[in-house]
Each structure stands twice: as C-alpha cells, then as structure tokens.
Amino acid sequence: MITIVPTLNICWLDTPACRDPARSGGKAANLALLAGAYPVPPGFCLTAAAYRRAALASPVPGLSPALYAELAGAYAQLAQRCGMADPPVAVRSSAVEEDSKIASFAGQHESYLNVRGLAAVAAAVRRCWASARGERVLAYRRARGLHLEGQGLAVLVQALIVADVAAIVFSADPRTGRRDQVVINATWGLGESLVAGTATPHGYVVARVPHLAIVDRQVGDPGRMTVAGPSGTYEVRVPPHLRALPALTDAQIAELARLACQLEAALGYPVDLECAYRDGQLALLQCRPITTLGA
Questions:
Q1: Phi then psi for 268, rounded to 5 degrees?
Q2: Among 80, 97, 105, 112, which residue carries the largest CB count within 10 Å?
C-alpha cells in the first residue's frame, strides 16, 4: 500500500492539492482535475512554492538537500506505482499562468522525455526552472502584458508513455473556428516531432453531429518520428513498413473525438489535447483551452 502525503513542495496528480494552479501550475492542475476519471498517467509536481523558495536562495535555482530528499522519496513512490526501478518519466514545466484561457505558453518552457534515474530527474527539474528566466519566455510574457517575474513555476514529473502513436486533438477547428468539428493530427512515435512540426502529421476531421463521422483524412508519409533511446529521445526516419499506413484506426479516431467532446462538455470550453497510444491503450497527456478561437 502506497501512502501519498502532499507537502508544501510535492503534490500528486491524483490528490485534490494538485488541482490548484497556484500550487501546481496550469498544465498539472488541468490534468489533476481529470486524473480520476480519465486515463492520465501517474505523476507528481514540485510545486511553484518550491521554485519560489529556491529562486530566493540563489539567482540560479537549485535543489537544497532537503528538497532533493523529497524528490527522491516521490520518485521512489512513482517507481512503486509503475512497478519498476528508475521508471522513465517526462519532466515538464508547469507555470502558474500556463494552459489558461488567456495564455497557453505552448512550447515556451522546457520539457524532457525519457528521463531515468533520480540524478537525471533532478537535473531536468533544474533545467525547467532555468527556462523560467529564458529570453523566449520573457518575450512571450512581454507580448501578453504579463509580469516578467511570473507567479511561479511548478514542474510535473510523470510516468512516460513510450508511444506507438502520438496525437493532438482539438474539440473545435482552430483554423476556421468551427465548433461542429473535431480536428486530429497524429504521427508515429512520441509527440515531440508532432509538436515541433518536424513530422508531417496524418490529419483527420470528424463531424460531431449527428454522430462522429470522419469527413476528411489526409494520410501521407510523415517523414520523421521521435523514439525513446537508452537516454532521452532522438528523431529518425519513419520505417518503410509504417510510411504508407494510417497512424490511427477509425476506432481510435472516434475514441479521440469522443474524448475531446466529453472534456469540452465537462470543462465548459473547447479543448486542445495531447494523447498517446501504447499497445492500443489511450493515455491523456495534456489538456488545455484552445486560446486561438474567437468569441
């Protein structure tokens, strides 16, 4: 039996404490709201308060011995949940203002995939913290009239889904603003190539009514894919036997569209999802508002 006790520095996705964006950042708080009812991989956050204390102690925030010990304990608990020693994790920044209705911060802060071992996780946390003062983030804040110091940066450490297929799903069309269609982009492997735009995604449009019907599909050679290596990830050419195949089955397209519609109804706004399939099992990795739609 694993006992999860939230602290000032650590909170778990499946506990109420993690649902507060002021504590866990927008990205983690959005997932925490859904963790009980949807297929969200297990994980925990180093809180925004932990970052603020570290930033006060040094211009280059680092983990104190006490915080390192807390991180070690949380990573050991995650290993128990995953049933393996040194489980691979995704380490993602989760700013307090991130994935809100006014700012997504998509691609601004750092994320690291396939991180293994306590020392590597701690190093990734420090790099996430350092990204909060990066010029890219500061320029993003200036453009949106946000305070340059920000309200804090949490870091999400989450069990990695070594995806066969990654997908981005919009419950409304972000290009046209249409609310009666779900748009899905998918590619082989982990989602980095898809998010970075280095892979050409397979595209699907699903009509929401009268039932979830695929009304358009664009399937071609995606070119590149991201795979997990012994340490970290790397990008390769899509193998020949996958190039002519659709990344998603029709049943998976319908499942993703249904999930997007359910989450839009539950949250009260159009959503942008990041999802993954591993051995046919769906995982929900991120959920944020679509900030590019009109009123």
A1: 90, 15
A2: 105
**Alpha-carbon distances of 143 from 105, 139, 147, rounded to whole Å:** 12, 6, 11
pLDDT top residue among 167 and 131: 167
H-only helix segments in the chain: 21-34, 48-57, 65-82, 118-131, 135-143, 192-196, 240-243, 250-267
Q: What's the whole-model pTM score?
A: 0.89
Q: Any idea what the Cα angle at residue 41 is, between residues 34 and 116, rounded to 5°?
A: 145
What is the token pair recorded at 100?
Answer: 């809100």
* CA–CA distance, 161 with 280 (Å, rounded to integer): 12
Angle at CA 254, nearest 5°, toward 252 and 260? 105
Tally of CA atoms within 13 A in the half-sphere of 66 that contains its CB: 7
Two tokens at 204?
Answer: 């699907």
Residue 75, CA distances (Å) to 91, 159, 188, 287 in order? 12, 10, 29, 24
What does the alpha-carbon distance between residue 293 and residue 119 come to, in Å, rounded to a whole number? Answer: 41
Amino acid letter, 79? A
Q: In this structure, how many other beta carbons lie within 10 angstroms of the beta carbon of residue 85? A: 10
Pairs from 62-65 (Cβ < 8 Å, separation ≥ 24):
62/126, 63/122, 63/125, 63/126
Tokens read off for 279: 């051995």
- Rounded mean pLDDT of 34-41? 96
